[in-house]
């Protein structure tokens, strides 16, 4: 039931409630996208290396890349459709809830992921990804609704930081289950019990995501109704995207920012999605146990360092401006790509992970808050963030597809890193075209 004493925009409690959704949802990208599921998937398929799917033989890592890309095609298409409906009904929170529950239930469904039931397993993976990313369309669109312009950089950083802390706590618990399954009464030989523990971890992600989302749902406003419900609402989201596209001519700084964001986000999100698969395949580990521990520890390192990175980037943007800070961060990413191309040992992988942690959360949080500052004053924030979201998702589709093609053809994930290097450099160059000051407000 909607609260009558609705918290006002800029209220610290409201901002914290909004940021708490990062605490709830960040366990999905950490456990499912980045650590436990990739380890489970590659361990499950390591003996055969190729998987038959839809009548074709795919390299295991290429297959997951293509399925991921297809899921983002659905997200990119559905986001404007659903945001248009949400705008008209005036209840974007309801749609956010729907995708949260689709995602959380699908995470629990990954418990049944096996090679002999690959289609149902891939379906749950597909739906979990859609649930997570589609919910972010509505979540991100709340930022200008709940925080004043001068609060948005730190509100965005707070969200990412809360997400890092929450996801680390659950991952540590999952790691203890995987490494010491007997503590939890999980039986079987060492590999069997570890694989069972990984499957249980998928269930914990779904439960964590659903339960901790409730605080945000309790405080966030429903949204702003913009019209009666008619058949036109089904296409309104696409019309709104078209409207935003034409409005870009009136906002030249925003028009220059979006192509830069598209380019570097293509590399950024793809790197995040494939990092563990890269560590699994390209790094020389002493044994399978060291590999499991090493991969999870490296992702934990990214998360812990990322907490400081997000706030460091926010402070840097306050002193030097958002655009200058983003340019520097893109060049740091480019240097990390060069380093990653040559790494082979666990120590080198940990070093790369620490570097990634310093810039990963920072570039995501600062990109979100920069965009929030650049959009015009409007009640229709969902349409602008839907445009932002579609831009990001199209980039991921291209990035994951290119990665999958290069991996499938060359047989090595390492060659894809050169593609990412070019994108980060181009992104920095495109950002350099943007003035660092806008109407007296430093960007």
Q: What would you say this structure looks like, in words?
A:
This protein is mainly alpha-helical. The chain has a single domain (12-222, 233-442), classed as Growth Hormone, Chain: A. It has helices spanning 12-25, 27-34, 36-45, 60-89, 92-109, 118-141, 143-146, 152-179, 190-212, 214-219, 233-247, 252-282, 288-320, 322-342, 346-374, 381-410, 416-431; strands spanning 50-53, 56-59, 437-438, 441-442. The strands form two sheets. It has a two-stranded antiparallel ribbon. A two-stranded antiparallel sheet has the order 3-4. The longest helix has 33 residues, at 288-320.
Topology readout:
Elements: H1 12-25, H2 27-34, H3 36-45, E1 50-53, E2 56-59, H4 60-89, H5 92-109, H6 118-141, H7 143-146, H8 152-179, H9 190-212, H10 214-219, H11 233-247, H12 252-282, H13 288-320, H14 322-342, H15 346-374, H16 381-410, H17 416-431, E3 437-438, E4 441-442
Antiparallel strand pairs: 1-2, 3-4
Helix pairs in contact: 1-8, 1-9, 2-8, 2-9, 4-5, 4-6, 4-11, 4-16, 5-6, 5-9, 6-16, 8-9, 8-13, 8-15, 11-16, 12-15, 12-16, 12-17, 13-14, 13-15, 14-15, 14-17
Shape: globular
Number of domains: 1
N-to-C series of helices and strands: HHHEEHHHHHHHHHHHHHHEE
Distance between the termini: 39 Å
Helix content: over 70%
Summarize the structure in short.
Helices cover about 75% and strands about 5% of the residues.
Keywords for this structure?
4 strands; disordered C terminus; 443 residues; mainly alpha
